[in-house]
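New here. Your pick:
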Amino acid sequence: MALRGLFAQSVVARVGSRDGAMFEQLSHYVQRIVTFQPDAAALVAGVPLVYRLHILLGFTLFLVSPFTRMVHVWSGLGALAYMLRPYQIVRRR
């Protein structure tokens, strides 16, 4: 239900900026994040809340993934092998 609300808010925010200025601003933000420039956060200050929540949730998933089973996604074709492997059976002696 919360995802539907976020989606509805993103549609409303998207209709308000159809000229691509928001996309250009966020692309500069990503570019500064990738190149480790410290002033990247200033570019997100004027962005609507729904976009900032989306960025926060994305970074949260990225930071949490090494501690979950989803870490296998980062191993490329190893992820497919992980999905198709047989279950491990653990027995007591």
About this structure: The chain has a mean pLDDT of 80. Helices lie at 2-16, 21-34, 49-64, 77-84. The radius of gyration is 19 Å. Residues 1-47 form one domain.
